[in-house]
Design brief:
mainly alpha; 0% strand; elongated
């Protein structure tokens, strides 16, 4: 049985090293030949899939920015590529806040499910923005959200900042909302 000892080290130049001289000679010969057999001429499937995915996301982003619908959701998630990388909680409450659909009195009033869109705190209409930034009933939860904002961010933060920078605290805030009690 042969025993090999292999040592790796940095070589300053090819000059005088037999293996390096041979590699250099073969590389020059291959570069000058017209009749080259290409040993590998295919693009990996993963590269193609990545490029297609980038193109689709770019097209989707264009549609996302130009549509007249989904303005509330777009304010929380302006860049789709960022949203696709996030692990967000998919709950009815979270969805209601970031889409503006469901749970709030202003939304339920649109469909004549409740008579009045006003919040029970009597400060304004019960919209997602009202609940996040103004509702007197949620002052303690809002204070906790502000307290948990990392590095003392400015209040009020933009919608997209709530989900990109403060997602954990924002999710906790949303979970703390008792929508039944606010009806």
């Amino acid at each position: 049985m042969l025993s090999w000892n292999i040592h790796f080290g940095w070589v300053k130049a090819h000059i005088g090293i037999e293996g390096n001289e041979e590699a250099d000679r073969l590389a020059k010969k291959a570069a000058q030949e017209d009749d080259q057999n290409i040993a590998y001429n295919r693009i990996p499937v993963t590269t193609v899939a990545t490029e297609i995915n980038k193109k689709v996301i770019t097209q989707w982003q264009g549609q996302w920015e130009s549509t007249e619908k989904g303005e509330a959701c777009r304010s929380f998630f302006p860049v789709l590529e960022h949203r696709l990388k996030m692990k967000i909680p998919v709950t009815p409450e979270f969805t209601a806040i970031v889409t503006g659909h469901g749970k709030t009195r202003s939304y339920l009033h649109r469909f004549k499910i409740v008579e009045n869109p006003s919040c029970t705190c009597n400060v304004g209409q019960q919209t997602p923005d009202h609940l996040i930034y103004e509702c007197k009933h949620l002052q303690a939860q809002r204070s906790s959200l502000i307290k948990h904002m990392i590095r003392g961010g400015d209040w009020p933060p933009a919608h997209d900042e709530l989900v990109t920078t403060y997602l954990t605290a924002f999710t906790r805030f949303i979970k703390s909302i008792d929508f039944q009690k606010l009806q």
